[in-house]
User: Fold these one by one.
Assistant:
Number 1:
Amino acid sequence: MSEKKKGFWREAIRVTKENDPAARTALEVLLTYPGVKALAAHRLSHFLWRHHFKLLARMHSQFWRFWTQIEIHPGAQIDYGVFIDHGSGLVIGETAVVEHDVKLYHGVTLGGTGKDKGKRHPTVRHGALISAHAQLLGPIEVGANAKVGASAVVVSDVPERVTVVGIPARVVRVDGKKDIKKITTLEERREASYHSSHHPSDQ
Ligand SMILES: CC(C)(COP(=O)(O)OP(=O)(O)OC[C@H]1O[C@@H](n2cnc3c(N)ncnc32)[C@H](O)[C@@H]1OP(=O)(O)O)[C@@H](O)C(=O)NCCC(=O)NCCS
């Protein structure tokens, strides 16, 4: 998690202005962006959750789900400086971790597969872009500055600085380039790691 020198509100304004050319003033960001409201509310829900007021935390997060259409479980760990654009239908699960400068669009799920216990939701490292309606499932890690294409379904780790698209999501760019050799190597590694964690008896 990043250092918190600047504070939640200043980071929220910074990241919104950096990512949305439509954001004109700080006041407009604070008053009209559902993502800013949902993340601000999550700070209180998370505080209540950590201090064992779990039912109150769940009720508080559900109240803000009603107003913002963004559902963040109070247990999720979310850094300052996360950007949520539009946000409707966004779901973030209990054990998800989201680092600073991550961009999340509407319809994204940081969810579980239903098969894992304990840490069962994704970790999204700093600067990653998770496009509209992408579904990230399980305790996977999306590396720093990676991009996940719209409507992709991601069930295995995504290395840093790559682009993945499709169902199931595959690497299509490395550092923005279509370097077939690097892409093939990364895909072979991803497949081996997926199989060793999901089907260990096949090894
Ligand atoms: C993935 C994305 C971030 C682009 O990343 P990029 O690294 O610049 O990748 P490119 O645009 O060069 O595309 C790489 C390849 O993936 C394909 N591709 C891009 N997005 C895709 C998607 N969502 N689904 C399937 N294929 C996709 C491209 O056609 C290209 O194919 P090629 O290798 O055959 O040429 C972008 O296309 C995307 O999905 N943006 C959506 C952002 C969003 O949610 N906006 C909502 C605003 S309201």
Note: The chain has one domain: 8-202.
Number 2:
Amino acid sequence: MDNFGQRIRSILSSSRDSLRHALHKSGARQRESTLPTPVLRLAQEPATAENPARGSTTEPASPSPHPITNTLLSRRSIAYASCGVVLLLGASAIFFPGCSQTPIHTIVPPGTPQVRVCLLEKRVRVDLSATQSPTIQVGNSAPTAIELGGSTVPVALTASGWKIGETPVGAGELRINPASEGSVSIEGHAYRGRYRLVPRPGGKFDVINDVDVDGYLMGVVAKEMFPDWHEEAYRAQAIVARTYAIYVTRTGAADASYDLFADTRSQVYGGIAGETAKARAAVEATRGVVVAYGPPGEEKIFKAYFSSCCGGITQSSADAFGDPLEQPLTAQNVGSLCSASKHFTWPAVTIPNAEITRRMRLWGAANNAPEKTIGDVVHVDVLSTNPFGRPASFAITDSRGLQYRLASEDFRLAVNTDASGGPRLLSSFCKPVNDKGAVRFTDGHGFGHGVGMCQWCAQAQATSGMPHEQIVLKAFPKAVLVHAY
Ligand SMILES: [Zn+2]
């Protein structure tokens, strides 16, 4: 456990004495290659970057280290790099060229925990560009400044090592350290933090972004919310996404080179271009706050799932994914709270049995599950429901009479495998009706796995005047909010 993980402070404790609690890692499980997609993005068009409010440089960022306060509502100041352009990094000021295309940068203070995000997988080359000369390190070599001359240069992995343009630079892990935040772009996209290009078997490599969690979240929150959604919903999303990211980072396999994907497999991450003023403000306003659960004094963060629309009944992570039962991730009946979503109910979806068979086998093969050899599917049934009537597991019967039982989200992922443009299930909250040669899924509700915080519920609560703290705590029963850093 590292320094960050040593201590957290309860900020909603009844005691005024700001209790410090260990942030435990126990109970966490290693990442499983078969873990279902934990987060689903919104159904509609992804959020587009707002035109950020330019100009006013507010108070400078607080000096580090930041005192842990006992109020959740304190608003730290935000330093903007307005057209001009000065980007404050710690005590130094760095002039940042390219004003007309420079997004507003919010400072992420030192001491913020790091996350490792996989931006690109199994590449043989990528395009690199920079507005300031970065330094690189290959393997254990000393940092070396490289001059790209303002042009886009290919980075390729060859049998003898890396080539930047036509220049061999050595073999091993290639680290690229930008001279200033966002000054290096990979494939035309700029990210906060640094980059690692990590060789994989077969002569390919992954591109990893090592970034402060709050810098990362600024590029996540706007991608997971609509531009016109309420700022309290944004803040709730920031807390939940922060908790999810830190949990996954803290519990990943020790030998993994990254913790998070930049897409719906983890959380949608758009880098600097994906940020908006509203998203940055939500991250800043909730800086360091995570949701945790446990006996007083022993609260631990957990995998704070969220999804688009629960359809009126959420489901537990135990039902959805087969996780151990955890109180904050149990099912809830929220009625029609998120009925503003167009997916609150959805029309019947019919999928031929032969197609379900094909998809089941593909999913089984990809996950090394028994379904890889399933016979022709002849029947699909709800096997069990949660206390509020939402399906918790499904049974699939094949022509040999064998029955396969799947947790609800495994079932949905299996049925949706390789669906491309074909029929697919928006959620597992539906009722299968076995017609001749096909299954008709009726009474469909919601979009996404329905575990944890429902984003459409959060938006409805925010517009009704509920503060973000309460939105998060209602989504995760018996949980508390804590300042983790
Ligand atoms: Zn909902």
Note: Residues 345-445 form one domain.
